[in-house]
Write a structure and sequence with these properties.
The chain has 304 residues and is α/β, with parallel strands linked by helices. It folds into 2 domains: 178 residues, 3-Layer(aba) Sandwich (Rossmann fold); 94 residues, UDP-galactose 4-epimerase, domain 1, CATH 3.90.25. It has 11 helices and 13 strands. Strand 4, helix 4 and strand 5 form a beta-alpha-beta unit. The radius of gyration is 19 Å and the shape is globular. The mean pLDDT is 96.
């Protein structure tokens, strides 16, 4: 590790962030996690070795103070659903653009950007994927003097994930489970492998400057197969039914109006294309991705 390399992480209280912070601390980095709320601050303070700073993320002045003396800034901030208060453009486009500008001013030399597989400003089928693509474009086109790398994983699994955990809870009380977009394919990727990818790029930043790295697990599953997997390894006998396209759209329309927004019309549009890699960049980083069954089978079984 480069001597005295310091890292500021934004979005560290989330699923990937908690794992990444622990990995960086264990590797000897000096890590600062920026928290925008008291809830996030409390959670971050449970991670040993992390310096936590409460900050107004909408204030350029406050962020500039936090970035002073940092070598690297990592942005993990993202949302799956919009609300009246916040939208995709604000979080995925305008915010990263501000961060890169502030990195340039503060003398930060490396910026790592979490995005999503299939992010594409021009061809993304959903507002989510379009905004993710626009965010990538904004940081890569405005990065003068700062090394920039984007990370584009398929769905991420592991301890505390928000994907398999949701289906585990829903299957508890649903004897019949209707699956939207059942034939959409995914290549689930382990959070440990995504975290290791961040670490490797931190160590070899110049080698990956300007690159948009795609990350997928070793096996491909349909959405229906993933739900069936959760039911099987948790010992639940459930009827898992794939919905036709018309009913998938209808379910999105209904569910986006419910508290929690488990599924929206924009999610439906995202699922019109497969979340699989034409090019998997784990190999370029020397990482062999872990299989879903090897990690989640014992993990889900322990939770029963």
């Amino acid at each position: 590790m480069t001597a005295q390399k310091t890292v500021a992480v934004i979005g560290g209280s989330g699923f990937v962030g908690r794992h990444l912070l622990a990995r960086l601390v264990n590797a000897g980095y000096r890590v600062t996690a920026l928290a925008r709320s008291s809830t996030a601050e409390f959670g971050l303070r449970q991670i040993a070795g992390v310096r936590v700073v409460r900050v107004d993320l909408e204030s350029d002045e406050a962020l500039s103070v936090c970035f002073a003396g940092q070598t690297v800034v990592i942005n993990l901030v993202g949302i799956l659903h919009e609300s009246r208060e916040i939208d995709f453009d604000a979080i995925h486009v305008a915010f990263p653009r501000r961060l890169v500008h502030l990195c340039q001013v503060a003398g930060v030399t490396q910026y790592l950007h979490m995005s999503a597989l299939n992010a594409d400003a021009a061809k993304g089928p959903s507002r989510y994927l379009k905004s993710r693509g626009e965010g990538e474009d904004s940081v890569h086109h405005a990065c003068g003097g700062v090394t920039v790398t984007s990370f584009r994983p398929s769905i991420i699994f592991g301890p505390g994930d928000n994907f398999f955990g949701v289906f585990d809870r829903l299957l508890d009380w649903m004897p019949v489970f209707p699956v939207v977009c059942p034939q959409t394919r995914f290549a689930p990727v382990c959070v440990d492998d995504v975290v290791e990818a961040f670490y490797q790029v931190l160590e070899r930043g110049a080698d990956f400057n300007g690159q948009r790295l795609n990350f997928c697990g070793p096996q491909i599953y349909t959405f229906k197969e993933l739900v069936q997997f959760v039911a099987r390894v948790t010992g639940r006998r459930r009827l898992v039914l794939g919905l036709p396209d018309s009913l998938s759209r209808l379910q999105a329309l209904v569910m986006e109006r419910l508290p929690g927004k488990l599924f929206t019309r924009d999610n439906y549009r995202s699922m019109q294309i497969d979340s699989v890699c034409a090019r998997n960049d784990f190999a370029a980083l020397g990482i062999t991705p872990k299989a879903l069954e090897d990690v989640m089978t014992p993990l889900l079984a322990r939770q029963r």
